[in-house]
Amino acid sequence: MEERFELFTVLITKISRSIRKIKNQETEEWGLRSPHVSCLYYLYTAEGMTATELCERCDEDKAAISRALDYLERNGFLVCESKSAKRYKSPLYLTERGRAVGAKIHDKVDCVLEEIRAELTEEERIAFYRSLSIISDRLEQCVKKQQ
Questions:
Q1: Got the DSSP string for 34-97?
Q2: Considering the entire predicted model, what is its pTM?
Q3: Bridge partners of 93?
Q4: Cβ contact 43:54 at 8 Å
Q5: C-alpha distances in angstroms, 111 versus 26, 100, 114, 115?
Q6: Engineering a disulfide at 58: which of 21, 38, 87, 123 sits with its beta carbon 3.0 to 4.6 angstroms away?
Q7: Which residues, listed in sequence order, are joined to residue 78 by a DSSP beta bridge?
Q8: Is the Cα torsion angle 122, 128, 131, 137 positive or negative in sign?
Q9: What is the rounded CA–CA span in Å between residue 124 and residue 117?
Q10: For 32-64, what is each residue's pLDDT tens digit?
Q11: Rounded CA gap, 92 and 94, in Å?
Q12: β partners of residue 92
């Protein structure tokens, strides 16, 4: 049992570290961090998203997304055209600069997914994501029980 736990945690940690390194490779030249990459990626794939929608997609809390969006707006990657008081529910749009960076991030994601896809059959990929989903759900339940 301990060996399974060790293998599981080591592999998950290695995957997480690799994802973080890939994100960092793409961000250095623009002064971006990992949460910025996620926001740009999702806005590139579905422009016009709100901060609330980004929180759900990125699985980040409101404060982290708010900080990321403030940075991206200040640095010319996105705009919020609405001047409403409920800014959090206003659609966000990429600028030309944001679209250019979003396209590069999107291309990198496609490249990484193609590398993974080349090693798995469609059935293996489906089973893998199903297993990850089950593990994620069960771990969340364990966390909730501990609170």
A1: HHHHHHHHHHHHSSS--HHHHHHHHT--HHHHHHHHHHHHHTTSEEE----S-GGGS-EEE-HH
A2: 0.81
A3: 79
A4: yes
A5: 13, 17, 5, 6
A6: 38
A7: 94
A8: negative
A9: 10
A10: 888 899 999 999 999 789 999 999 998 888 899
A11: 7
A12: 80
d(CA 147, CA 142): 9
Which position has the token pair 């029980």? 145
Could you report the per-residue pLDDT of 80-96, keeping only the tens digit for each? 877 665 667 889 999 99
| Closest CA relative to residue 33, chosen from 58, 11, 62 | 58
Is residue 38 within 8 Å of 58, Cβ to Cβ?
yes
Per-residue buried b or exposed e for 116-138, using 16+ beta carbons within 10 Å of the residue's own CB: eeeeeeeeeeeeeeeeeeeeeee
For the chain, how are helix, strand and coil distributed in percent, rounded to 5? 75, 5, 20
